[in-house]
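Leukotriene A(4) hydrolase structure dump, as promised
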Amino acid sequence: MLPLSIEQRRPSRSPEYDQSTLSNYKDFAVLHTDLNLSVSFEKSAISGSVTFQLKKLHEGKNKSDELHLDTSYLDVQEVHIDGSKADFQIEQRKEPLGSRLVINNASCNDNFTLNIQFRTTDKCTALQWLNSKQTKGGKPYVFSQLEAIHARSLFPCFDTPSVKSTFTASIESPLPVVFSGIRIEDTSKDTNIYRFEQKVPIPAYLIGIASGDLSSAPIGPRSTVYTEPFRLKDCQWEFENDVEKFIQTAEKIIFEYEWGTYDILVNVDSYPYGGMESPNMTFATPTLIAHDRSNIDVIAHELAHSWSGNLVTNCSWNHFWLNEGWTVYLERRIIGAIHGEPTRHFSALIGWSDLQNSIDSMKDPERFSTLVQNLNDNTDPDDAFSTVPYEKGFNLLFHLETILGGKAEFDPFIRHYFKKFAKKSLDTFQFLDTLYEFYPEKKEILDSVDWETWLYKPGMPPRPHFITALADNVYQLADKWVEMAQHLKTTEDFRSEFNAIDIKDFNSNQWFCSWKL
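structure tokens r here:
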């Protein structure tokens, strides 16, 4: 049993119901999803069909005869159940969740096939289209971003992280396509159709699609980089020394990489995100290409998502920290294993500062700076996005590592947790239950944690103890600059006192901090 203050908050069922979907996902299991899509750059639209293999989950009077799916700004054209045309209605839009697709008389069979034909519209929030003048290669480009609730704007679905399924996809496009799965070699003569398979069950928000003038090059024994031809060699050089090393390091901390391949798509210059953890195909910003490999550690974060977020997933966006807090924790464990423990702690110090700045700049910190969120009033999960789930979540896990006895004591729990919930979705209460069950002899230590403050109170969390050696080096140099600036008068004076040797051993984070100072 958890501490009383937490038990009082426990939902009637775990995992907690996701309120950010209009679907009745609790009534059906998705056994498999097949996408058959066509990309039209002329119309800036994707059209096609999605086919679900479904199973009813309830018996007797509780068995649902209606099927509800999420849509948002979609043109739904036809619905078929087991090959027969079915009636459907699109309900009035409910901001920000979209429009519920209602299918009556779903099927008299417990297992059935649902096929929906659809087309995206010019209001689609899932896709970004670029014309030929907006890319350096002079060819059009499209990429998707479905997190948190934008999969419903690409295709009708149970758009919740609580629902996972395997996927297959057949995508027709005049330009090369990448997808969040493994490419299936096609022996047909139609070179404009690209086929993919995702054998690990994933939620809809993790689907990633991009199409454009893409070339590829190997960057490891199980990794390939995709990008526009003009930057391919730079991307290959940037990643080829480190990606496999990151994967092997993560495997030692957690367990074997589940997904087969780990590829990277370096997007066009206007890509507005740092990265997106689409399984098998990390979507990355071109700003990672620094030509000195100084930004490569960012890949450790997206790679870590292969376990936290992709393999083990938050059941709803209220518990987003289970995705991102764990990912930042694993990212820093990877970095620490490669570069040393002081580097891990220095990254944590920077994260602490970012967390403080994020909370200070929030319009509503009382609501959005808690680790566990409450988005059950139709709040858009995008509105709650901040540094909090990343850094506050990391600090909780780092605190647990510390009080439980360090990495040697915490690492067995990491492996147990990710094995227990692999291919599943969970909430914070299930995480806590698993933690307490794993450490029965350390219940008093766990009870000493101020869970109410960590999970539900706004503002900064209790500060853990960090190794400050790398930060101290930066501050000492900065203090020397400030002191000498009061005495030195000319550029030559400064050159005699300071030189490149002072910073030759700085890592990229130390460089960044010295610039900020």
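The chain has a mean pLDDT of 93.
lmk if u need the other ones
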